[in-house]
Amino acid sequence: MLSRVLRKFNIFQFQTDLLEWYGQNKRDLPWRQDQNPYKVWVSEIMLQQTQVDTVIPYFYRFMEQFPTVYDLASADEQEVLKAWEGLGYYSRARNLQNAVREVVSEYNGKVPDQPKQLGELKGIGPYTRGAILSIAFNQPEPAVDGNVMRVLSRIFNIHDDISVGRTRKSFEEIVRAIISEEDPSSFNQALMELGALICTPKSPMCMFCPVMEHCEAYEEGIQEQLPVKAKKAKQKKKPYKSVIIKNEKGEVIIEKRPETGLLANLWQFPMIPGQIKTNEEAEQWLNKEYGLDITVDKKVGDVRHVFSHIIWEIDVYEAMTYQSVKEIKDQRLRMVSREEIDKFPFPVSHQKMMQYI
Length: 357
Ligand code: SF4
Description:
By secondary structure, the chain is an alpha+beta fold. The chain has helices at residues 2-6, 11-25, 37-47, 52-65, 69-74, 77-84, 91-106, 115-119, 126-136, 146-155, 165-178, 184-197, 216-220, 279-290, 338-341, 348-351, and strands at residues 236-246, 252-256, 267-268, 271-273, 294-306, 310-321, 333-336. It has a 4-stranded mixed β-sheet with strand order 4-1-6-5. Strands 3-2-7 form a 3-stranded antiparallel β-sheet.
């Protein structure tokens, strides 16, 4: 494929057009202020599946709280999850902290600049590895994500399905062939920036595109048909009941989620499987599961949360308990005041339930 797509392609002119445009139009983003590898790494992890505008305030706060690898490595995991609260995909935060701990213990606190060592760190896949190596260390390594694949599919009129793993590999080969050896950092960022600002998924702004002259899809008028991407299976709906259990003092019971799996180690209000229908059944279930002695009252609201693979549909109920803190034996549970709750990391779905306390 490489020789076919590059046959008539003017690499030098493409680099010049792209880099010139990037130099004049790049956004002033906080992680672009220097090439500190730790900052580049944190920003790249935060930017996975997340919009730039959402990431910016999180990035500032995270850097203030954990300015160096040492600060992040020595932090309590709950603190890190709290700083990540609301960003989603929490395994990113846990993996980042584990990998940073490895950087401190194995590499003297220096982010490795060797592809192999960097790629072996937790949570660093081929894209993030390429992004760190190119952006922070100025190495001519490809950093190919969905954005870049969209742009390149259009420029080179490639119809391979970008949701298939090996397609990314062929795009990496193309980037290796066309990347600027003088400024790989700007080159990769320019491709990403082009995808974010001009060559957008819907209605790309070809008229303003600095590389329009190099673009085969534009020439053929098929830019909106690319990239080819197989449709994802629809998310399965999962019904739950969640209970806001209060005592006479207005304190609330919260639960720590398991150490592994979805939203690991985050906190929530106890959740009951949706097939349990009546309040009485819910009370029995909570008694069996947690040893709780409660009275479930009325439904107060509902919350819907869409994950990449499932949708939670949660009916929220109020409940009362007359048990004291000492009587609540289950290790997963805590009885906390409204003020104390704010210290615990909650997923967005359960943050939305705070209004019902
Ligand atoms: S010309 Fe249009 S389709 Fe081609 S790279 Fe530019 S914005 Fe994308």
